[in-house]
Amino acid sequence: MILLRKVRVFSLFILSHYAVKFCIGGDIITASEYIQDPGSIISSGGLYRLGFFSPNGTTNRYVGIWHNKIPVFNVFWVANREKPVLDSSGVMTISDDGNLVILNGKKEVLWSSNVSTFGANAKAQLLDAGNLILQKQSSNMSTNYTTAWESFQTTCDTLIAKMKLSTNLRTNEKQVLTSWKSPSDPSIGSFSISLEPLNIPEVFLWNGTTLYWRSGPWNGKVFIGTPEMLSVYLDGFSLVDDKEGYVYLTYNFAEVSYLSYFFLRSNGELLQPFWDEKNKQWRIDWSTRASDCDVYGKCGPFGFCDAKKSPICSCLRGFEPKKVEEWSRGNWSSGCIQKSLLHCDKLKNGSSKAGKIDGFIKLENVKVPNYAIWSSPLEDKCREQCLSNCSCAAYAYDAGVGCMYWSGDLIDVRKFSYAGTTLYVRVAHTELEGKRDLRAIIATAAVVATVIFSIGTFFAWQKSKKRGGKDGHQFSKASSENVLGGSLSKVNLQELVLYKLEELATATSNFSDANKLGEGGFGAVYRGRLLNGKEIAVKRLSEASGQGLREFINEMEVISKVQHRNLVRLLGCCAEQDEKLLIYEFMPNKGLDAFLFDPLKREQLDWRRRFNIIDGICRGLLYLLRDSRLRIIHRDLKTSNILLDEELNPRISDFGTARIFGGGENQGDTLRVVGTYGYMAPEYAMEGRFSEKSDVFSFGVVLLEIVSGRQNTSFNEEDQSLSLLGLAWKYWEEDNVLALVDPKISVGCFEIEIIRCINVGLLCTQELANDRPTISTVISMINNEIVGLPRPNKPAFTERQTTTDTGSSRQCQKKYSANNVTITALEGR
């Protein structure tokens, strides 16, 4: 964020032909009272300020309007977007022809309101609504002014209350929002938002000339393709037809103190921040980029998008992929086609056996397709009208709209978890439920026969195994043994699926960089999609990594023997030629670090979600350290190794460095340390001693990162010598522990629970292993089963340590984990 520059008072001086007056108060600009950089004017109520500013990353000067009483600087309107002042010589004044202009030091006009001339007796005023208006005097002797121009008619990337998105139905002239080119360049970018006066009005977000997102039809109160509007904006938006050719959309909140706006980012994301007065910060209330299903037409014509399923795209019932091979690769843009001819199509083809008339499948809580056509206000007429029209592909009813129907392709249909509309899609009679009894019986019989055959085959295979048969799975294992030099002898491959290299190459587009999720010392992880549509994550061992081979064997040995809802699931492996790969279930939300350390994504992590993640990590560790049939020390627990599923539940991953303990073992020693600095316990980092308590230490660091939203390895703004542990201890000693909490968290009634978690985090990161709690005690502590928590001593590593990579490891290349140096050195067992 850009900080407000302090307004400085300058002496008056002569600028060419006239004296410059610095305007640091008042709300008026005239020919004799103008703004010289860095001056400004303030609206009469003190709500808004107009002045010169520079975006982050540039010294160029622009004139903009921003909230005056908000400590976090955010500009919502910029005058000279395309032509900045290159130094501090800028002036905003009234020109001789009465226009509002911005001049540079050479008195060149960089920007103008550009309205019809009416003389220098004009004035500009900044209103308390945030609108800058230019007024002309009716006559030389008159005190009456009429508005000739206003900033609300030249919107930039932000829509505030009482601004308008408008369209002239006669001329098709539109007032739109346009994104900045980049966060440091306010010039017009690639994305824009417009009100489209279709048969039923909608708001469109464009990437150039390509439709990128749509709001769904307007029903008189809300846009029905944006379910969040039901609870937030029900009394806010208005769509007005002024009967003079203009249709415009505006909004205003009933609660005057509620400060909010809509902001189009340079990357095409539309956000709705609101001001959190208690925590003095802008918080994101809504975004168009909550999931991939928000992208217009993600699944193509007659495709159906459901963000909670994997893959997210499927065909509507009665339809099948148009291009099967592309569909299996995750390219759904070609969409789907009907399996069976409709009744009308059969009649058009001259068929004498057109069969029974078509019917409709019912889809509830969906976003209706694009380009709806209004047909009737009566609900009971919808079905009849659609069925009697051969071009009608679907219909829906909304009380505020009436009957809507669609002809041609159905594009941008998606599932909502709540709200939405019920859509009826036309299909051939043979596709309807309840009309396919014979086909259902045949299908059921086929399934039963297949199951019986499979069971018989399985027992025959088991019998051949006992006789020493080498076919099937056994042959694959033998091949894998050859590739890995016999290292798989102790790994029970019969619990895993053995994939073919060709299959995985196809699934990952030949291991393309576009599919790469991250990279570590062992190699890279790729996103893949099998031919059946199932998404997977493929860990590919680097050919040059000798240490990776050991990790590969170790990870198979460890994770093939454990199963828990908070551990990532290993699906199978592949060892062909020189390739060694592990196949995992795909986690759509990637690592916890991708959410926690992203300034926008972490808005989704309110305290309840963060606490659930903390609790889930605890229970995964409890299983590894105490409850599984093996005792497993992870040794590299960190936020990037905590994956999040589609419901944001945590899954512990990356067991390449894990160690299995025997029945009586409690700790182990190693000559070479593996793990990540910043998360390693002191006795492990310095002496190579690891135990349950070393994993507890790592968990303590992760817990404090979740609470604070800061990385332990990143610089602290207040004191760059302090680590996150040092900062937590500093606040603890000052009895100001809530200062550590991520500003994105609304503390409220969770204050005691949050303080308890910080206390536990400090106890877990104590210098001495014996001073740390066991993982079972940690769970009791955070769930309030232990009432009086002990006070912590000073934790380990309170100051940042400058470390470098050692051995054969290399810096992690993952987007959100670049600050973690992972040590993955070879060691003996």
From TrEMBL:
It is a single-pass type I membrane protein. The keyword Membrane applies. Residues 511-787 form the Protein kinase domain. It catalyses: L-seryl-[protein] + ATP = O-phospho-L-seryl-[protein] + ADP + H(+); L-threonyl-[protein] + ATP = O-phospho-L-threonyl-[protein] + ADP + H(+). Residues 26-147 form the Bulb-type lectin domain. The chain crosses the membrane at residues 440-461. PROSITE patterns: BULB_LECTIN, PAN, PROTEIN_KINASE_ATP, PROTEIN_KINASE_DOM, PROTEIN_KINASE_ST. This is Receptor-like serine/threonine-protein kinase. It comes from Eucalyptus globulus.
